[in-house]
C-alpha cells in the first residue's frame, strides 16, 4: 500500500517527467554534436565572415541576384541563391564565372576577380541564407582514392559530355562541357555537388563522397599519365581519329595514286 501511495504522489510524476526530459534532451544534444562534428571544417563560418560577405554581396552580386539572394524572374531570369550553399559560390566565383560579364549560352572560366578570403566571406554569407552544400575539405578531394573505380564511375556518369578522359566536348545550342585537365580537385568536387549550368547534380545519394574522391583520383591519374599510344589527338575520341584518317591518310593514298597514274602516262 505504501508503494502504491508513493507511486501515485505528485512527486513521482515530476520525477518521471524530469527523467524523460533529461533522456530526450541528452539524446538530442548527442545527435546534434555528432552532426556538427561530421560537417566539413569549411562549413563553419564566423559572424565576421558573414558580415563582410554580406557587404561584398551587396556591392557585387545584389544587382542581379537581389539584396537577399532571392533572384529575379521575368525577362531577365536570375536564379535564387537561397540554399545553394557555400560550395556553389566557391565554384562560380573562384573559377571567375561569376560575376558574369555578359549574357550568352554559357559562362566561361576566367581569372577570378576576388581574393580567396573575399570568396570565403561571400560563400559564408550565401550559406547563411539557407542550408546547402559546404566547401569540401582537402581530405575530401585528395587524389588518394581508387582510380579504377573512378574510371568506371566517370564513364557511366560523365563521359557522355566530358569525354572518357575529361577532354571536354560540344553540347547543344552553343554550350559545351569544359575540359577537366588542370581543373582544381576542389572545383571538380563542387561541380558534382552543385551541378553548375548544364551539369546535373550528383549529391551524396547519387555519388557518395568516396565515389567523388575516386573520380578525382582517376582524373588526376589521366592528367599525370602520358599516352602510351603516341600522339593522342587531344584524346577527343573516334570522331577526330576518323577525320584524321579521311583527310590525311586517305588523302595521301589518293595523292600517291594520282602521281603514279601521271608517271605511267
Question: Topology, pairings included?
Answer:
Blueprint lengths: L1 H6 L2 H29 L8 H14 L1 H4 L19 H10 L21 H14 L8 H4 L5 H11 L1 H4 L6 E2 L5 E2 L7 H10 L14 H16 L13 H27 L1
Antiparallel strand pairs: 1-2
Helix pairs in contact: 3-6, 5-6, 5-10, 8-11, 10-11
EC number: 7.1.1.8
Keywords: Cell membrane, Heme, Iron, Membrane, Metal-binding, Repeat, Translocase, Transmembrane, Transmembrane helix, Transport
Main location: membrane
Give a written overview of the molecule.
- α5 (85-94) packs antiparallel against α6 and α8 (147-157) crosses α11 (209-224).
- A two-stranded antiparallel ribbon has the order 1-2.
- It is elongated and about 120 Å long.
- It is 56% helix and 2% strand.
- A hairpin with a 5-residue loop joins β1 and β2 (176-177).
- It has helices spanning 2-7, 10-38, 47-60, 62-65, 85-94, 116-129, 138-141, 147-157, 159-162, 185-194, 209-224, 238-264, and strands spanning 169-170, 176-177.
- By secondary structure, the protein is mainly α.
- It contains 12 helices and 2 strands; from the N terminus they run αααααααααββααα.
- Mean pLDDT is 83; it is low at 34-39.
- The chain has a domain at 40-135: Cytochrome Bc1 Complex, Chain D, domain 2 (Orthogonal Bundle).
Radius of gyration: 28 Å
Largest sheet: 2 strands, antiparallel
Structural classification: mainly alpha
Secondary structure: number of strands:
2
Low-confidence stretches: 34-39
Number of helices: 12
The residue-averaged pLDDT reads 83
Order of helices and strands: HHHHHHHHHEEHHH
Distance between the termini: 130 Å
Q: Helical amount among residues, as a percent range?
A: 55-70%
CATH architecture of the domain at 40-135: Orthogonal Bundle
Strand content: under 5%
What would you call the shape? elongated
CATH C-level of the domain at 40-135: Mainly Alpha
CATH homologous group name of the domain at 40-135: Cytochrome c-like domain
Q: Strand order, biggest sheet?
A: 1-2
CATH topology call of the domain at 40-135: Cytochrome Bc1 Complex, Chain D, domain 2
Transmembrane segments: 243-262
EC number: 7.1.1.8
GO cellular component, one term: plasma membrane
Protein name: Cytochrome bc1 complex cytochrome c subunit
